Amino acid sequence: MTSPTTSISSARWETTSDPSNLAPLRKNIESFCLVHGLDQSGADNMGLCFNEAMANVTRHAYAGRIDQPVVIAITGSNVGVTLTIRDWGNGIDPGLETAKPKDPLIPGGLGLICMRELLDDARFDPQPDGMMLTMVRNKPGNSTASK
Amino acid sequence: MAHVKTTGTSLITSVRVDETLGAVIATLKGEIDLHNSPAVRTTLLELLAKHQPKKLVLNLSQVPYMDSSAIAVLVESLQRIRKFGGKIYLTDLQPRVKGLLEIARLNSIFGICKDEAEALAQ
Q: Does residue A63 lie in a domain region?
């Protein structure tokens, strides 16, 4: 994991798709969320959705390759926290809008369900050379997330 | 009750076998994500193949966090143990783990117990 570039209300990490980066980055993101006005539940849920999104980047966008570039940026505002994950993988939109409750015994898709249920907004924006995922969790009182 | 030396991952800190109950009781420790869930998978599937228990009790009191890759390991283990008529019990769930199981709608598929004693009494 590379060192973050941090200002008062934003941070940015240039990292790789190696899963060993997951836990330390997630903890940094959860801490950022708490500092920037989310409650514990909101911070935990943003951390989980970040984890799931990064795992999807490694498994799907980069087909398991763990040395590929990923850039993460997070911003706090008076409304909430916005997190972006940029990859240069296959650029396939996983279809967040069509993620449905599934047979729990069939693996796959749980990360998308988490994003849909635990965030105020999540969207995949295909890029010419990859994908940009934007995730938003609002502060308590502004949040419409189900948990 | 026999204690078994574990292999494959330090996340599974102890394993006991109760042959009278046909149970394997494993204690896990640490956060489980895509980085370390493959090692947990290896150990759990080895335990199931070796002992073919009727009950696999997983004490998760020291697991504050898991992600969908860990959930997938639990589901695969459940499908494996069902082949010889067994069931998996998860005990001492911490809030984040309990929440993820609820989102995954697995809280009614695994046996969820407050502690090992309750799981073994089922």
A: yes
Task: Return d(Cα B97, Cα B66) in angstroms, integer.
Answer: 6
Range of the domain at A20: 9-138
Q: What is the ipTM of this complex?
A: 0.87
Please check whether residue A65 lies inside any domain of the structure: yes
Residue A93: pLDDT over 50: yes
CATH code for the domain in which residue A55 is found: 3.30.565.10
Q: What is the pLDDT of residue A109?
A: 84
3-state class (DSSP) for residue A10: strand
B30: closest chain A residue by CA = A23
A-chain residues within 8 Å CB-CB of B76?
Answer: 107
| Residue whose C-alpha is closest to residue B87's, from B36, B61, B52, B118 | B52
From the CB of residue B19, how many other CB atoms can be counted at a distance below 10 Å? 11
Quick check: B34 and A23 CB within 8 A?
no
Is the pLDDT score of A8 beyond 80? Answer: no
Place of tokens 């010419």: A128
Note whether residue A130 is domain-resident.
yes
pLDDT of residue A101: 59
Whether A42 maps to a domain, the answer reads yes
Number of domains in chain A: 1
Cβ proximity of B60 and B92 under 8 Å: yes
A121-140 pLDDT, tens digit per residue, is 999 999 999 999 999 999 99
